[in-house]
Amino acid sequence: MEEWAERFRERLIEKPSWDQRACTMEPLRDVMVTPTEVIVTVDLPYAEENTIQVKPISKDTVEILAKLKRKVRFDDFGITQYKGEFHTFRCETRIPVPVYMEKMEIRFRKGILEIHLPRKHEYEIPIE
Amino acid sequence: MSEETKIIERKDVPHGAVMLFGFPDVGLVGVIAASHIISELNLTEVAYMDSRLLPPLIVLHEGLPHSPIRIFGNHDTLLAVSETAISAEAIYPIMHTLIDWGRDKNVKLMISMSGIPVQDRQDVKELKVFAAASSPEILKMVHDKGIEILREGYMVGPQATMMQYCATTGVPAITLLGQCFFNYPDPEAAAEVLKELANIIGIKVDISKLLEKGEEIRLKARDVMRRTQQELSKMKKTREYDIPLYVS
Questions:
Q1: Based on the structure, what is the number of domains in chain B?
Q2: d(CA B73, CA A33)
Q3: Of B10, B226, B239, the residue nearest A13 (C-alpha)
């Protein structure tokens, strides 16, 4: 289990948080499972609210896109060894339990995107 | 000071100063607050940490190498800050070395700036700052300043080690914990901690600039936050949510 967690972490973390070719940056995000819903939060500083898109791309994955209010360059962080500019936040997030994608609700507050997905309770084990 | 972890002084270090700590933790509250203090008070680097317990990493500024853990200061303030997340195994020796060094400089008070996660943070209008202290006298002083005391619970991370070691060695110490996001950089929480820091030691920093740069800081701090999340998970930071069982 620990090995799996380490592999998952490496896949998630051991890569740049930006994609030069696609001009995208990966936002920080978090997934919380409650008894009734899955709540995904995404930190989107500088995001233009009316450009935010949340698209289900499979039964358990959503893609999140948001345009930045202004283009961000490596130069802005004092970095000169890389070239490139970014205009969009983009990430894909896996939803760990079955949900009703079509009943998704989203809200954006203080630069934080919240995605609420009601849970599907497909199996019930009767208690005898 | 052990052989594997030592502090190298670059300039004369004042005696009898207040020593502040800003280390990567939830919301990066301490690091953001520390960075703002350095810039507002024009603090200069007076010392740095050399440790085999740190990852093989340097921070380049203007092409020159720097240790990720440095101590900045002026005539009456010292500030230890880390630009990298510290692993759970390295926290004890690193904090003990810093505190021993501070004791050697007759530091009169140590204050750790950090965060305490709050659920649905984006809906919280007024962020609270809690405090814990190394002795009943310091706790009373903090309480008299109107700061809410963190009465019961667990504390995990550099500030936990600092409080314990300061209590053991008799160094007056305070930890300020601003309500914040767990996983996202939180400049607003850092601003609230700085307000209470001013309340305690009278340090004057303009927090309006910090709030103005909030979005920029959140954007820049993403990678440090990601690395910090990784270390927080390893040190079981979520234990802070646990309800303690006191045996009396």
A1: 1
A2: 45
A3: B226
Cβ within 8 Å, pair B183-A28: yes
Reading the block at residue A124, the tokens are 């019930």
Q: Would residue B247 count as lying in a domain?
A: no
- Alpha carbons B74 and B13: distance in angstroms, whole number: 8
Place of tokens 């079509």: A102
The enclosing domain of B229 has a CATH number of 3.40.50.10900
Task: For tokens 């700036």, name the residue.
Answer: B113
Distance from CA of A122 to the nearest CA of B (A): 28
Query: Which 3 state secondary structure label does DSSP give A2?
Result: helix
Secondary structure element (H or E) that encloses residue B139, with its range: helix B136-144
Domains of chain A (ranges plus CATH)?
Answer: 2-118 (2.60.40.790)
Q: Is the separation of the CB atoms in B67 and B58 below 8 Å?
A: yes
Nearest CA in chain A to B125: A110
Neighbouring-strand partners of residue B240: none
Which residues in chain B are contacts of A89 at CB distance < 8 A?
none
Q: pLDDT tens per residue, chain B (248 residues)?
A: 566 899 999 999 999 999 999 999 999 999 999 999 999 999 999 999 999 998 888 999 888 999 999 999 999 999 999 999 888 889 999 999 999 999 999 999 999 999 999 988 999 999 999 999 999 999 999 999 999 999 888 888 899 999 999 999 999 999 999 999 999 999 999 999 999 999 999 998 999 999 999 999 999 999 999 989 888 888 787 777 777 777 65
Residue of B nearest to A42 (CA): B184
ipTM: 0.85
The residue range of the domain holding B205 is 5-241
